[in-house]
Amino acid sequence: MPLQERLRVHTLRTILKWSALTGAGRSIHCEICGRELFKGIPVVWRGRLRLLGSAAGFVRVDWDGKNTLAFRHVEQEVCKAGSR
Amino acid sequence: MTMLNVVMTHLRAPAVRDSLRYLQDIAPEARFAICHVGEPADFSELEYADKVLVDDPSFRLPPRTFQSFHETFAALYDRFVKADPTIDSLYLFEYDHMILDGRFEERIKTLAVETDADLLGKTCSERTGTNWIHYVRFRRDERLVAHLRAISVHEDPARMYGCLGNGFWLKRAALEAYLSVDEHPPCYGELYLPTLLHHLGFRVVDVDAHSTLYRHVRADGEFTLSELVRLKHEGHTFVHPYKGPSGIPALRRITESA
After folding, report:
1. Pairwise CB contact (< 8 Å): A54 & B131
2. pTM, entire model
3. Range B29-43 average pLDDT
4. Where are the domains of chain B?
């Protein structure tokens, strides 16, 4: 695919993803400080749960219940600033 | 006991000289060494006794892939540490990790004692179960996991750690333990260093969990010159990243006028 076409597709995908996350994305908050980590859209695809938008945050995740995942900041400094 | 402060740089000789002069002005008691990873000609031109040239093939790989500290640590140990039992720790920082306050040594040492750290770094913490790109890359790496299983003193060899590599402090014993490992699997230094040390039984500590020393240290997003100057006036200790050529002259002017 020519470079110009690849750029066009990339830009279009970025805009679509941004629009979807802004419109339909739900806020995921840090379980420690309560601040928003990212806006995410869960998608089950090919046996995996993909969380679109999560790459925008630097996050730790673990199971908080049989069907619940809990998220938190990796960076202590950011997390502490939120809980002050 | 001595903390050896090592500036890791690829810059031309005049820029390295300026940087050294500034560091020696603000911290005359501190011992600085240069670890040059750039052109041999620039290294030769640099008239400074405490210098070493490191040519690590991993530095020529695409950024943030498999860069390691193996060669750097080995060179620093052979050149400075091995024959000098007074060196009890190493502070290794990149040229764009700006030191604004000459009391940095005392502050790092105090933090290390208070936290009983063997390795101190920015966001130096466990990365298991995170979306950090290097944890995601290496969490199922067979060679790395087998290596950690073979050397680990802990129950779970799959635990992985990370830290920013721009400026970190480590004890002599931790450096020697790292170098005592015969073979290392291909890995990225910012994951491998804290992970290996953890599994060898050392304590890795996140500066941010215990102090504000690294408040203005971040992975990306370069500081501007005006921000650098403002942070110096406000009495902060470190800033990263700042790569501009005007930074050191500006910091020197402030130091000289103070």
Report:
1. yes
2. 0.91
3. 96
4. 2-209
Q: Who contacts A64 (Cβ-Cβ below 8 Å, separation ≥6)?
A: A31, A70
A55 touches B: beta carbon within 8 Å:
yes
What is the DSSP secondary structure assignment for residue B140, as one 8-state letter?
T
> In the numeric block, which tokens belong to residue B27?
């911290």
Q: Is the dihedral of CA B87, B89, B94, B99 positive or negative?
A: negative
Non-local CB neighbours of B224 within 8 Å, separated by 6+ positions: none
CB contact under 8 A, A55 and B131: yes
ipTM of the complex: 0.82
* Residue of B69, B50, B47, B38 lying closest to B6 (CA atoms): B50
| Residue given tokens 């008239």 in the structure block | B47
In chain B, what residues touch A33 (CB-CB under 8 Å)? Answer: none
pLDDT of residue A84: 45
Query: If you count residue pairs, one on A and one on B, with CB atoms under 8 Å apart, how many are there?
Result: 31
* B258 pLDDT higher than 80: no
CATH label, B2-209, candidates 3.90.550, 3.40.50, 3.20.20, 3.30.70: 3.90.550
Of residues A74, A76, A80, nearest to B130 (C-beta) = A74
Q: Which amino acid is at B231?
A: L
Using CB atoms and an 8 Å cut-off, which of residues 46-85 of chain B contact chain A?
none
Q: Are strands B204-206 and B119-121 parallel, antiparallel or unpaired?
A: parallel
Q: To which H or E segment does residue B86 belong?
A: none
Write the residue in B130, B209, B215 that is nearest to A59 by C-beta.
B130
Q: Give me the mean pLDDT over the A17-25 stretch.
A: 80
Q: Where are the alpha helices (DSSP H) in chain B?
A: 13-26, 40-45, 70-76, 104-115, 133-138, 142-151, 172-180, 189-199, 207-210, 225-233, 247-257
Contact B127, B191 (CB under 8 A): yes
User: Which tokens sit at B30?
Assistant: 């501190």
| CA–CA distance, B181 with B229 (Å, rounded to integer) | 43
